[in-house]
Amino acid sequence: MADPYATLGVARGADEATIKKAYRTLAKELHPDRNKDNQAASDRFSKVTAAYDLLSDKDKRARFDRGEIDGDGNPAMPFGYGGGPGGGGFRGQQGGGFSTDDVGDIFEGLFGGGRQRGGGGGPGGGFGGFGRGGHQAPPAKGANVPYRLRVPFEDAAALKVQRITLQDGKTIDLKLPAGVESGTQMRLTGKGQPGPAGAGDAIVTIEVEPHRFYTRDGDAVRLDLPVTLDEAVLGGPVKVPTVDGAVMLNIPRGSSSGKVLRLKGKGFHGKGGVRGDQLVTLMIDLPADDAALAAFAEGWGDKDRRNPRGALGV
Q1: Based on the domain organization, do 242 and 261 belong to the same domain?
Q2: What is the pTM (predicted TM-score) of this model?
Q3: Using a CB cutoff of 8 Å and minimum separation of 24, what contacts does 74-79 make?
Q4: Which domain holds residue 33?
Q5: Is the pLDDT of residue 228 over 50?
């Protein structure tokens, strides 16, 4: 049998306001609506509610303090007490002070709902779906079921619909959210394990697969694009891959390796609704052991007296 004062964490001389405040704090913390699938919290919730029931009844509190009843409200000396008005059980407001009916008022303030009263105000009368006799937790939903979905890089950037197969064999088409990245979670309501109060949810964690030549930079997509020497020197349109398919990109005349060109709106969809760009870095690709190119470079070297590394101090 528990000491109701210890259960609520108050001193024996605590006044009514202190007891009500302590119960309100614990009830808010332990209420089953906020601790689904947590049996320990549900059990403790029942204990603190029972303790409050006893201490909120002025007459029963006095009898407990005198040692006439235990923490469960049962007679501590059964042969010295009959079944008169001071016996065990709920007293409602007969003892004066503040009543156990205040429990419903507390929960109305905590959780915003009105009290649901049972028949006749007896021990079976409930508040918020809980009987004052057993304080039984409401039926719980089924467990959530986790899933991991690997999404191709291009699909994540373009927000292409993905198909997932659930444990019951059914398939669902998922619309990816803007800003999707590895670790993004999507909740499918009612697609988890069945339970007395309905099915739980499916929790889908997204994993964006790496790409063999694209990389992600925030909402931008980066690409190193090989170009030939004549394409870099003379410029002109070249075909470039994007997450939405190939497009033509115009290379300016005299472009060097490392020059970055921008393709608007070819990146990832950002959370704010704006789509990022694709950043294309030009990389001049020279053929190996090309005699004609070597001869050209030897002649050109005598004419080009620039020092392209001067800015580096060498």
Answers
A1: yes
A2: 0.54
A3: 74/1
A4: 4-131
A5: yes
